[in-house]
Task: inverse folding
C-alpha cells in the first residue's frame, strides 16, 4: 500500500487505522526508547510481580492475553488498575486488584505524574538503572518537575477524582513490588494527551528500572492482529518502513534506487487531515482497504461530508461496510484463509499466513492492489508475497534477516532480525535503548478543550465488549449478536435517577457535535458523571456524538472524552433516520436484465 | 484547509510543549509542524489569518516561514 501511494500516486498521503488507535504509541515510544513497539513478549507477564493496567480492558478486548495475565494474577502477582470504569479485572473470581484508581476521563497524565511524584519524593526511583541506562540530566529535570508539590496526589485529587492515598499506595507498590509491568490500551492513546500519556508511562518504567528483562516493560495491547505489522511497513504518512522519517535523505535514496522513482520528502496527510482537505476541495480520491472509516472515525457527519466531496472513493473490503455506502467503486476483499502473507502481532512476532482455499473473488488482496498499480502503469510483477518480503528485508534494517523461507522453517520471528539480533529479540532494550540513552520527557498535564457545562454535564467514554469486534463489520454477521445485539449506554444510578431513567429506557445522547438514541443500562460500573457505550452497531453510530478533538502530537481522535447530555427519547435522531435512508438507497442492487 | 482548525492544532502543540520554556517550546513546535504536517497545511497556516495563534504557536509559525 505504501509503495502504491508513494511511488504510484506520487504523494505521501498514506495512513492506517492505527491513526485512530495506536499512533500515540508510535510517537511516544519512539521518542523515549527509540522504537515504536512494545518492549516484551507475551510470556513475559509470567515473570511479573506487579501488573499495572491503565486504560485497557483486557478481559473484553484482549481475551487471549487476558487469560494468561489472570493466570499470573492467580499465582499471586499484584494488580493495579487505572480506569474510569470498574472493569472486570478489578474484581472477578479469584482476582482482585490491590488498587483501583477510578480517574476522571482525560486525566491520565495527572494520575501518572502524581504516581511519579510519590516515587521521586519518597526516594523509590532506581537510581542505579537510571544512571547506567538513561540520560541523567534529563532524569534530573523530570524528577524536579514531578517532585514539585503541585504534582502531589493530594494537590491533584480534585483534578483526577482519585483519593490521594490510593495513588500513594499504588505508586509505592509499583516501585517496590518487584518486577513491574505496564499494560495499556486505547484508554491511554485516544485522548488529547495520548502521546504525553505514553511518554509518562515510559518515564515511570525507566524511573523504576522496569525495562530490559522479563516480567517488566511497557506493553501496548494492540487491538488488531496486524496493526503492528501495518505500522512497521511505513503506513504512516511521515514514515517509511522501519519507522524512518520521510525527510531522511539517505533512507529515501535507498527506496528511490530500489523503486526507480523520486519520492516526496514532505510528510503526507493523516486520515483526519485528508477528510478536512476533501471538504476543502484539495483532496479528490481515496483507496480504502480493510477499514470502515465511516463508523470507526470520530464526528461521523464530517467523515460523510469528506467522502461525499471526493470524486472517487474506492473501498476494498470483505463486506459492503458502512463506508461502502459512499463508494464509487467496490473491490471485494479476501479472508485470511484465502491469502498468503504475514501478520505481525503486539509482541513484534512476524507470523506466516497460509492460503488454504482459493479466494472466492478470484484474487488475494495483494493481487488486487497490484492490479490497481498496474492499471496505473506501474508495471509490478510480484509472483508471491515472499518476493514482497524480500523487498521489505532489502529496504528495512529491522527486517534484514526475515524471509518466507526462514518463517516457514522457524514458524515465526520477532523483529528486529538482523546482524545484531540474528534470531530476533523477544525482549527489547536489554543492554541499552535502541536510541542509546533512555529519554525522559517532561509531560505536563494539559486539560482537554472538551469541557462539561450546564448543557452537556456528563462525560461520555467509549469502548468495546467481548462478543463484538471493533465496528462489528465481521462479528455483527455472526451469532455473537445474540449476546450483544445493540449498543447500550451505561449510566450511574444517581445520574439515571436525576433524569427519571431506568434500565431499558430509550435515551437521546447529545453532544456539541451530534446526537443519537439508544437504550440505557443503569449500573455502578461507571462513576457518577460518566456514561459509557460501545461503537459496534451502525444503527447507533456512537461516533456521531464524538468530537474532532485529537491527540496534540498525532491527531489520534479523543474518543474517550466527550461532554454529553442524556434525556429520555421516544424515537431515532434525525441523523439516524437520514442515514438509514441513505444506506438503504446505496445498497440497492439493480435487477439483472434477461438475456436476449 | 480550515485555518481555524489548524490554528487550534498549532495552539494545542504549543500548549503541550510549553513546559520546555519559551525558546525551546517555539523551536519544538515549529519542528513538530515541519515533521508531521503536509505542505498544504503548512501553507494554509502561513498564508492564513494568524490572529488566533497564541504567542508560542505564533512564533513557531513565523519560524516556519
Result:
Amino acid at each position: 500500500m505504501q509503495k502504491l501511494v508513494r511511488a504510484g500516486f506520487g504523494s505521501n498521503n498514506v495512513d492506517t487505522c492505527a491513526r485512530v488507535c495506536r499512533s500515540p504509541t508510535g510517537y511516544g515510544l519512539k521518542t523515549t526508547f527509540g522504537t515504536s513497539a512494545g518492549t516484551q513478549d507475551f510470556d513475559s507477564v509470567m515473570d511479573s510481580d506487579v501488573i499495572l493496567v491503565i486504560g485497557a480492558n483486557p478481559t473484553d478486548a484482549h481475551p487471549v492475553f487476558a487469560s494468561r495475565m489472570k493466570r499470573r494474577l492467580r499465582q499471586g502477582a499484584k494488580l493495579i488498575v487505572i480506569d474510569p470504569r470498574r472493569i472486570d479485572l478489578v474484581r472477578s473470581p479469584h482476582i482482585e486488584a490491590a488498587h483501583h484508581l477510578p480517574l476522571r476521563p482525560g486525566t491520565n497524565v495527572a494520575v501518572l505524574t502524581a504516581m511519579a511524584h510519590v516515587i521521586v519524593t519518597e526516594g523509590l526511583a532506581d537510581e542505579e538503572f537510571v544512571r547506567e541506562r538513561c540520560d541523567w540530566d534529563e532524569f534530573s529535570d523530570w524528577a524536579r518537575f514531578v517532585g514539585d508539590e503541585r504534582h502531589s496526589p493530594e494537590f491533584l485529587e480534585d483534578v483526577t477524582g482519585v483519593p490521594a492515598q490510593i495513588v500513594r499506595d499504588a505508586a509505592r507498590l509499583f516501585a517496590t513490588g518487584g518486577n513491574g509491568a505496564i499494560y495499556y490500551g486505547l484508554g491511554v492513546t485516544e485522548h488529547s494527551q495520548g502521546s504525553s500519556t505514553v511518554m509518562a508511562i515510559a518515564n515511570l518504567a525507566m524511573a523504576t528500572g522496569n525495562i530490559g528483562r522479563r516480567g517488566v516493560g511497557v506493553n501496548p495491547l494492540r487491538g488488531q492482529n496486524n496493526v503492528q505489522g501495518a505500522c512497521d511497513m511505513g503506513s504512516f504518512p511521515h514514515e517509511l518502513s522501519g519507522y524512518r522519517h520521510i525527510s531522511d535523505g539517505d533512507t529515501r535514496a535507498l527506496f528511490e534506487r530500489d523503486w526507480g522513482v523520486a519520492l516526496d520528502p514532505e510528510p503526507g496527510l493523516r486520515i483526519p487531515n485528508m477528510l478536512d482537505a476533501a471538504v476543502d476541495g484539495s483532496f479528490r480520491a481515496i483507496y480504502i482497504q480493510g477499514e470502515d472509516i465511516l463508523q470507526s472515525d470520530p464526528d461521523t457527519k464530517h467523515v460523510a461530508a469528506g467522502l461525499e466531496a471526493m470524486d472517487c472513493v474506492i473501498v476494498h473490503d470483505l463486506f459492503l461496510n458502512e463506508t461502502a455506502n459512499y463508494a464509487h467503486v467496490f473491490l471485494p476483499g479476501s479472508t485470511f484463509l484465502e491469502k498468503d502473507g504475514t501478520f505481525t502481532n503486539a509482541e513484534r512476532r512476524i507470523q506466516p499466513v497460509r492460503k488454504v482455499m482459493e479466494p472466492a473473488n478470484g484474487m488475494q488482496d495483494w493481487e488486487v492492489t497490484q492490479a490497481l498499480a498496474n492499471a496505473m502503469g506501474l508495471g509490478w510483477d510480484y509472483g508471491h508475497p515472499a518476493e514482497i518480503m524480500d523487498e521489505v528485508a532489502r529496504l528495512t534494517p529491522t527486517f534484514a534477516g526475515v524471509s518466507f523461507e526462514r518463517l516457514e522453517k522457524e514458524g515465526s520471528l520477532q523483529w528486529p532480525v538482523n546482524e545484531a539480533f540474528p534470531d530476533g529479540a523477544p525482549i527489547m532494550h536489554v543492554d541499552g535503548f535502541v536510541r542509546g540513552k533512555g529519554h525522559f520527557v517532561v509531560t505536563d498535564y494539559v486539560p482537554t478543550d472538551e469541557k462539561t457545562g450546564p448543557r452537556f454535564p456528563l462525560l461520555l467514554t467509549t469502548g468495546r465488549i467481548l462478543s463484538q469486534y471493533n465496528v462489528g463489520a465481521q462479528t455483527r454477521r455472526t451469532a455473537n449478536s445474540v449476546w450483544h445485539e445493540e449498543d447500550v449506554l451505561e449510566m450511574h444510578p444517581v445520574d439515571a435517577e436525576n433524569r427519571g431513567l431506568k434500565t431499558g429506557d430509550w435515551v437521546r445522547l447529545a453532544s456539541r457535535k451530534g446526537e443519537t438514541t439508544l437504550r440505557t443500562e443503569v449500573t455502578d460500573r461507571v462513576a457518577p458523571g460518566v456514561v459509557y457505550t460501545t461503537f459496534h452497531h451502525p444503527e447507533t453510530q456512537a461516533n456521531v456524538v464524538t468530537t474532532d478533538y485529537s491527540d496534540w502530537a498525532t491527531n489520534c481522535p479523543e474518543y474517550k472524552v466527550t461532554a454529553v447530555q442524556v434525556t429520555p427519547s421516544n424515537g431515532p435522531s434525525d441523523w439516524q433516520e437520514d442515514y438509514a435512508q441513505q444506506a438503504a438507497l446505496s445498497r440497492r442492487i439493480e435487477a439483472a436484465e434477461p438475456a436476449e | 484547509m480550515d485555518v481555524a482548525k489548524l490554528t487550534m492544532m498549532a495552539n494545542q502543540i504549543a500548549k503541550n510543549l510549553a513546559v520546555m520554556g519559551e525558546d525551546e517550546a517555539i523551536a519544538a513546535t515549529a519542528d513538530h509542524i515541519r515533521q508531521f504536517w503536509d505542505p498544504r497545511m503548512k501553507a494554509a497556516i502561513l498564508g492564513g489569518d494568524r490572529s488566533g495563534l497564541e504567542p508560542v504557536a505564533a512564533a513557531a509559525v513565523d519560524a516556519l516561514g
Notes: Residues 38 and 52 of chain B are 21 Å apart (CA to CA).
